Amino acid sequence: MADLADNTSVAVLGTGIMGFAMARNLARAGLDVRAWNRTRARAELLAADGIRVTDTPAQAVDGADVVLTMLLDGPAVLDALRRAAPQLAPGTLWLQMSTVGTEAFAPLAQCAREYGLHLVDAPVLGTKMPAEKGELTILAAGPLDVRERAAQVFDIVGRSTRWIGGDGRSGAASRLKLVVNSWVLTLINGAGEALALAKGLDVDPRDFLAAVEGGPLDVPYLRMKAELILADDYPASFTVSAARKDARLIAEAAEESGVRIDMAAAAAERFRRAEELGHGEEDGAAAYFASFDG
To answer: What is the mean pLDDT of the chain?
Structure first.
Protein backbone atom coordinates (compact mmCIF):
# COMPACT_ATOMS: atom_id res chain seq x y z
CA MET A 1 0.00 0.00 0.00
CA ALA A 2 1.22 3.51 -0.80
CA ASP A 3 2.68 5.72 1.89
CA LEU A 4 0.53 8.72 2.74
CA ALA A 5 3.12 11.03 1.25
CA ASP A 6 2.54 9.48 -2.18
CA ASN A 7 -0.77 11.09 -3.19
CA THR A 8 -2.81 8.86 -0.91
CA SER A 9 -6.40 8.27 -1.95
CA VAL A 10 -9.06 8.39 0.75
CA ALA A 11 -12.64 7.21 0.33
CA VAL A 12 -15.00 9.06 2.66
CA LEU A 13 -18.25 7.16 3.17
CA GLY A 14 -20.79 9.53 4.69
CA THR A 15 -20.79 13.26 4.03
CA GLY A 16 -23.21 14.62 6.59
CA ILE A 17 -22.25 17.52 8.86
CA MET A 18 -18.99 15.93 9.97
CA GLY A 19 -17.98 13.82 6.98
CA PHE A 20 -18.48 16.73 4.59
CA ALA A 21 -16.02 18.93 6.49
CA MET A 22 -13.52 16.10 6.92
CA ALA A 23 -13.55 15.25 3.20
CA ARG A 24 -13.03 18.88 2.27
CA ASN A 25 -10.07 19.25 4.66
CA LEU A 26 -8.45 16.09 3.31
CA ALA A 27 -8.78 17.34 -0.26
CA ARG A 28 -7.43 20.76 0.62
CA ALA A 29 -4.41 19.04 2.19
CA GLY A 30 -3.63 17.54 -1.21
CA LEU A 31 -5.02 14.02 -0.83
CA ASP A 32 -6.97 12.30 -3.59
CA VAL A 33 -10.45 12.15 -2.08
CA ARG A 34 -13.53 10.39 -3.36
CA ALA A 35 -16.83 10.60 -1.46
CA TRP A 36 -20.10 8.73 -1.24
CA ASN A 37 -23.25 9.63 0.62
CA ARG A 38 -26.58 7.84 0.73
CA THR A 39 -28.21 11.06 -0.47
CA ARG A 40 -25.86 12.07 -3.27
CA ALA A 41 -27.02 15.69 -3.35
CA ARG A 42 -25.43 16.26 0.05
CA ALA A 43 -22.04 15.34 -1.37
CA GLU A 44 -22.26 17.20 -4.68
CA LEU A 45 -20.84 20.47 -3.33
CA LEU A 46 -17.57 18.65 -2.61
CA ALA A 47 -16.90 18.43 -6.34
CA ALA A 48 -15.83 22.09 -6.20
CA ASP A 49 -12.90 20.96 -4.02
CA GLY A 50 -11.78 18.42 -6.59
CA ILE A 51 -13.42 15.51 -4.78
CA ARG A 52 -14.87 12.75 -6.95
CA VAL A 53 -18.45 12.09 -5.85
CA THR A 54 -19.56 8.53 -6.52
CA ASP A 55 -22.87 6.75 -6.84
CA THR A 56 -21.91 3.72 -4.75
CA PRO A 57 -19.60 2.83 -1.87
CA ALA A 58 -17.82 0.34 -4.15
CA GLN A 59 -16.93 3.09 -6.61
CA ALA A 60 -15.61 5.25 -3.79
CA VAL A 61 -13.29 2.60 -2.31
CA ASP A 62 -12.01 1.26 -5.63
CA GLY A 63 -8.24 1.76 -5.48
CA ALA A 64 -8.40 3.74 -2.21
CA ASP A 65 -5.54 3.46 0.27
CA VAL A 66 -7.73 4.56 3.17
CA VAL A 67 -11.46 4.18 3.83
CA LEU A 68 -12.97 6.63 6.33
CA THR A 69 -16.51 5.98 7.55
CA MET A 70 -18.56 8.77 9.11
CA LEU A 71 -22.16 7.58 9.09
CA LEU A 72 -25.10 7.78 11.47
CA ASP A 73 -24.77 4.45 13.26
CA GLY A 74 -23.37 0.93 13.18
CA PRO A 75 -25.95 -0.59 10.82
CA ALA A 76 -25.35 2.24 8.33
CA VAL A 77 -21.59 1.65 8.47
CA LEU A 78 -21.99 -2.10 8.06
CA ASP A 79 -24.33 -1.65 5.10
CA ALA A 80 -21.87 0.71 3.38
CA LEU A 81 -18.94 -1.68 3.92
CA ARG A 82 -20.90 -4.65 2.59
CA ARG A 83 -21.81 -2.64 -0.50
CA ALA A 84 -18.18 -1.60 -0.92
CA ALA A 85 -16.89 -5.16 -0.49
CA PRO A 86 -16.40 -6.01 -4.19
CA GLN A 87 -13.77 -3.27 -4.49
CA LEU A 88 -12.17 -3.42 -1.02
CA ALA A 89 -8.56 -4.53 -1.26
CA PRO A 90 -7.10 -6.62 1.59
CA GLY A 91 -4.73 -4.49 3.64
CA THR A 92 -6.74 -1.29 3.20
CA LEU A 93 -6.64 1.02 6.21
CA TRP A 94 -10.14 1.52 7.60
CA LEU A 95 -10.67 4.51 9.87
CA GLN A 96 -14.06 3.94 11.50
CA MET A 97 -14.91 7.37 12.90
CA SER A 98 -18.68 7.13 13.42
CA THR A 99 -20.32 6.83 16.84
CA VAL A 100 -21.68 3.29 16.77
CA GLY A 101 -21.89 2.13 20.39
CA THR A 102 -20.90 -1.28 21.73
CA GLU A 103 -23.39 -3.79 20.36
CA ALA A 104 -23.00 -2.61 16.76
CA PHE A 105 -19.21 -2.60 16.93
CA ALA A 106 -18.72 -6.38 16.96
CA PRO A 107 -20.14 -6.88 13.43
CA LEU A 108 -17.82 -4.12 12.19
CA ALA A 109 -14.79 -5.83 13.68
CA GLN A 110 -15.91 -9.08 12.06
CA CYS A 111 -16.27 -7.25 8.76
CA ALA A 112 -12.68 -6.03 9.06
CA ARG A 113 -11.47 -9.60 9.65
CA GLU A 114 -13.54 -10.93 6.78
CA TYR A 115 -12.15 -8.44 4.28
CA GLY A 116 -8.61 -8.29 5.67
CA LEU A 117 -8.82 -4.60 6.59
CA HIS A 118 -6.62 -2.79 9.10
CA LEU A 119 -9.29 -1.37 11.40
CA VAL A 120 -8.72 1.71 13.53
CA ASP A 121 -11.59 2.45 15.90
CA ALA A 122 -11.56 6.26 15.93
CA PRO A 123 -14.72 8.17 16.92
CA VAL A 124 -14.33 11.93 17.24
CA LEU A 125 -15.16 14.65 19.72
CA GLY A 126 -16.40 17.88 18.21
CA THR A 127 -19.19 19.29 16.11
CA LYS A 128 -19.57 21.24 12.87
CA MET A 129 -17.25 24.18 13.53
CA PRO A 130 -14.31 22.13 14.87
CA ALA A 131 -14.77 19.72 11.97
CA GLU A 132 -14.64 22.58 9.47
CA LYS A 133 -11.50 23.97 11.11
CA GLY A 134 -9.79 20.57 11.33
CA GLU A 135 -9.82 20.80 15.12
CA LEU A 136 -11.56 17.58 16.13
CA THR A 137 -10.31 15.43 18.98
CA ILE A 138 -9.88 11.83 17.87
CA LEU A 139 -10.16 8.88 20.24
CA ALA A 140 -8.26 6.06 18.58
CA ALA A 141 -7.44 2.41 19.08
CA GLY A 142 -5.62 0.38 16.48
CA PRO A 143 -2.63 -1.83 15.69
CA LEU A 144 0.74 -0.26 16.38
CA ASP A 145 1.96 -0.85 12.84
CA VAL A 146 -0.74 1.31 11.24
CA ARG A 147 -0.89 4.14 13.75
CA GLU A 148 1.64 6.32 11.97
CA ARG A 149 -0.29 6.15 8.70
CA ALA A 150 -3.59 6.73 10.45
CA ALA A 151 -2.15 9.66 12.39
CA GLN A 152 -1.25 11.47 9.17
CA VAL A 153 -4.94 11.48 8.23
CA PHE A 154 -5.98 12.35 11.78
CA ASP A 155 -3.59 15.30 11.83
CA ILE A 156 -5.48 16.82 8.90
CA VAL A 157 -8.99 16.47 10.34
CA GLY A 158 -8.15 16.94 14.00
CA ARG A 159 -6.01 18.94 16.38
CA SER A 160 -5.22 16.04 18.71
CA THR A 161 -5.42 12.26 18.79
CA ARG A 162 -5.65 10.24 21.98
CA TRP A 163 -4.45 6.69 21.38
CA ILE A 164 -5.77 4.24 23.93
CA GLY A 165 -5.33 0.53 24.46
CA GLY A 166 -6.70 -2.01 22.04
CA ASP A 167 -5.91 -3.26 18.56
CA GLY A 168 -8.89 -1.56 16.92
CA ARG A 169 -11.18 -4.58 17.06
CA SER A 170 -11.95 -4.44 20.77
CA GLY A 171 -14.08 -1.29 20.54
CA ALA A 172 -12.08 0.48 23.26
CA ALA A 173 -12.30 3.90 21.62
CA SER A 174 -16.00 3.50 20.89
CA ARG A 175 -16.62 2.70 24.55
CA LEU A 176 -14.72 5.80 25.62
CA LYS A 177 -16.79 7.87 23.17
CA LEU A 178 -20.00 6.75 24.90
CA VAL A 179 -18.63 7.85 28.26
CA VAL A 180 -17.71 11.26 26.86
CA ASN A 181 -21.05 11.66 25.11
CA SER A 182 -22.91 10.84 28.30
CA TRP A 183 -21.35 14.03 29.67
CA VAL A 184 -22.10 16.00 26.49
CA LEU A 185 -25.78 15.07 26.66
CA THR A 186 -25.87 15.98 30.35
CA LEU A 187 -24.62 19.47 29.49
CA ILE A 188 -27.03 19.92 26.58
CA ASN A 189 -30.07 18.93 28.60
CA GLY A 190 -28.88 20.71 31.73
CA ALA A 191 -28.60 23.97 29.81
CA GLY A 192 -32.01 23.49 28.21
CA GLU A 193 -33.78 22.60 31.42
CA ALA A 194 -32.19 25.48 33.37
CA LEU A 195 -33.31 28.01 30.78
CA ALA A 196 -36.76 26.43 30.56
CA LEU A 197 -37.10 26.65 34.33
CA ALA A 198 -35.98 30.27 34.22
CA LYS A 199 -38.77 30.99 31.75
CA GLY A 200 -41.32 29.16 33.87
CA LEU A 201 -40.28 31.05 37.02
CA ASP A 202 -40.08 34.41 35.23
CA VAL A 203 -36.34 34.63 35.82
CA ASP A 204 -34.17 36.49 33.31
CA PRO A 205 -31.93 33.76 31.83
CA ARG A 206 -29.12 36.31 31.59
CA ASP A 207 -29.24 36.60 35.37
CA PHE A 208 -28.71 32.85 35.62
CA LEU A 209 -25.73 33.00 33.27
CA ALA A 210 -24.27 35.97 35.16
CA ALA A 211 -24.69 34.14 38.47
CA VAL A 212 -22.47 31.24 37.41
CA GLU A 213 -20.06 33.26 35.26
CA GLY A 214 -16.40 32.55 35.96
CA GLY A 215 -17.12 30.05 38.72
CA PRO A 216 -16.91 26.25 38.93
CA LEU A 217 -20.46 25.92 37.57
CA ASP A 218 -19.61 27.80 34.38
CA VAL A 219 -18.55 25.82 31.30
CA PRO A 220 -18.18 26.92 27.65
CA TYR A 221 -20.72 24.37 26.44
CA LEU A 222 -23.38 25.92 28.68
CA ARG A 223 -22.68 29.29 27.05
CA MET A 224 -22.81 27.86 23.54
CA LYS A 225 -26.13 26.10 23.98
CA ALA A 226 -27.70 28.91 26.01
CA GLU A 227 -26.92 31.44 23.27
CA LEU A 228 -28.72 29.28 20.69
CA ILE A 229 -31.76 29.06 22.94
CA LEU A 230 -31.77 32.79 23.70
CA ALA A 231 -31.44 33.62 20.01
CA ASP A 232 -34.16 31.08 19.15
CA ASP A 233 -31.91 29.91 16.33
CA TYR A 234 -30.68 26.32 16.10
CA PRO A 235 -28.23 25.78 13.23
CA ALA A 236 -27.26 22.14 13.53
CA SER A 237 -23.84 21.10 14.74
CA PHE A 238 -25.08 18.01 16.62
CA THR A 239 -28.73 17.40 15.83
CA VAL A 240 -31.54 16.42 18.16
CA SER A 241 -31.98 13.18 16.22
CA ALA A 242 -28.28 12.30 16.43
CA ALA A 243 -28.28 13.11 20.13
CA ARG A 244 -31.28 10.84 20.65
CA LYS A 245 -29.42 8.03 18.89
CA ASP A 246 -26.39 8.51 21.10
CA ALA A 247 -28.51 8.59 24.25
CA ARG A 248 -30.00 5.26 23.21
CA LEU A 249 -26.57 3.76 22.59
CA ILE A 250 -25.36 4.96 26.00
CA ALA A 251 -28.39 3.55 27.80
CA GLU A 252 -28.07 0.20 26.01
CA ALA A 253 -24.35 -0.07 26.78
CA ALA A 254 -24.96 0.74 30.43
CA GLU A 255 -27.65 -1.90 30.70
CA GLU A 256 -25.39 -4.49 29.06
CA SER A 257 -22.65 -3.71 31.56
CA GLY A 258 -24.93 -3.82 34.60
CA VAL A 259 -24.68 -0.09 35.31
CA ARG A 260 -27.76 1.97 36.08
CA ILE A 261 -27.59 5.48 34.61
CA ASP A 262 -30.95 7.17 34.81
CA MET A 263 -30.08 10.36 32.95
CA ALA A 264 -29.35 8.66 29.62
CA ALA A 265 -32.88 7.27 29.39
CA ALA A 266 -34.30 10.64 30.43
CA ALA A 267 -32.18 12.37 27.80
CA ALA A 268 -33.40 10.01 25.10
CA GLU A 269 -36.98 10.79 26.11
CA ARG A 270 -36.38 14.56 25.96
CA PHE A 271 -34.83 14.28 22.51
CA ARG A 272 -37.73 12.10 21.38
CA ARG A 273 -40.25 14.74 22.46
CA ALA A 274 -38.25 17.46 20.71
CA GLU A 275 -38.27 15.33 17.54
CA GLU A 276 -42.04 14.96 17.75
CA LEU A 277 -42.29 18.74 17.97
CA GLY A 278 -40.42 19.02 14.66
CA HIS A 279 -36.90 19.83 15.90
CA GLY A 280 -35.12 16.63 14.88
CA GLU A 281 -32.75 18.25 12.36
CA GLU A 282 -31.99 21.27 14.54
CA ASP A 283 -29.15 21.53 17.01
CA GLY A 284 -29.45 19.43 20.15
CA ALA A 285 -30.06 22.60 22.14
CA ALA A 286 -33.57 22.55 20.64
CA ALA A 287 -34.37 19.82 23.17
CA TYR A 288 -35.25 22.93 25.20
CA PHE A 289 -38.69 22.70 23.61
CA ALA A 290 -39.27 19.31 25.22
CA SER A 291 -39.91 21.19 28.48
CA PHE A 292 -43.13 22.67 27.13
CA ASP A 293 -46.38 21.27 25.78
CA GLY A 294 -46.41 22.02 22.05
So the answer is: 96
